[in-house]
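Problem 12. The chain below contains 436 residues. Write out its predicted structure in token notation.
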Amino acid sequence: MTDAEKRTRILELVRHYADSEHAPKPFVEGESSVPVSGRVYDADDMCSLVESALDFWLTTGPFNDAFEKKLSLFIGTKFALTCNSGSSANLLAMTALTSHLLKDKALKPGDEVITCATGFPTTINPILMNGLVPVFLDVDIPTYNMDVSKLEEALSPRTRAIMLAHTLGNPFNLDAVMAFAKKHDLFVIEDCCDALGATYRGKMVGTFGNIGTLSFYPAHHITMGEGGAVFTSRSLLKRVLESIRDWGRDCYCPPGMDNTCGKRFDWQLGELPQGFDHKYTYSHLGYNLKITDMQAAVGCSQMDKAEQFIAARKRNFQLLKEGLRALEDVLILPEATPHSDPSWFGFPLTVRDGAPFTRDALLIHLNEKRIGTRLLFGGNLLRQPYMIGREYRAVGEMTNSDKVMHDSFWLGVYPGLGEEAIGYMIDTIKTFVRSR
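Solution.
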């Protein structure tokens, strides 16, 4: 048997094993759990992973190159760069705006970045980590995105950027945010970690601002286990992002390659001697935030199913909304932002003031029925213990952010949930409400 035949046989066995041992199990009401999220994968994903393992190219390599091309084509940007998580993607994006290569437009310690008071901490943590000052605005209910009505009030002489997430796959008001950014010459970072495939006025989110970010954690639209990406259409920002991701080096040679520029020993930068090896010249304070080629191999296969996954999420969202519409007197149902087509990550709900039950009572009941729930991430982030003593500004009252903290949660809509599971969630919530 030749090596090629051995490889083919190995992959045939992997496919057979995946089909027999990893096939989705049927939903059994009362016995099966209904998680909020999870990895959805098949034999193609496992074969792609094993194929990369057989190559044993452990660092980024051919599969990573292919994945970055697939991703940039899907989103519609010139460049996409993988990294090891969505949180790292946000760190890369924010840190890139401090680069000396941006000259007088580079953000400096003490500059302000407008953001939303609710959401996931690693949307705002890179602001703090770079010595910048987050300026918090309240959240809108029922879109769960930043309330844009106080943008002008948030402006100060130090305002330099806006960093926002498209909450649970629902695009924020890009008309208002981009008009404000253009008027005041501000950078915009779009955190799309929960929003792969969402569009606003027919255009992919992440392509409006300067940089977009994604996560490929198992909970997200596609997965490679751990992993993330940054994307942009600006060559200069791509260069900066790549440098910070790759140890901060000035050299742009791919891993395993040398002398791409043709003058590896001809540079003189900083206070280094003339001819110092460009491969070991560092122009940014950087990290090693790359992924492995095995992760990228899974991502390549998952990208082929992205449209299918997004359609399933939209279907599940709509089933939940129609099924729970009769409960609008006690539950605030989510609404898509005008002009948007969300790629839903979850189905957010808020218990109305005066309802005959609390959010926590409902969550305890759902947990007992094996239905998973999540809070809207960190709730009002200003109330989190790690924010004590931090420098920030809050514009206006955080009334809705506190409401979200006390009364909001979300249900799963991920592709692993079929109509039986969605129906079970609807019936369980209805039964609980009617019993109160």
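Discussion. The chain has a mean pLDDT of 96. Students who got a different answer should revisit the alignment rule from Section 12.3.
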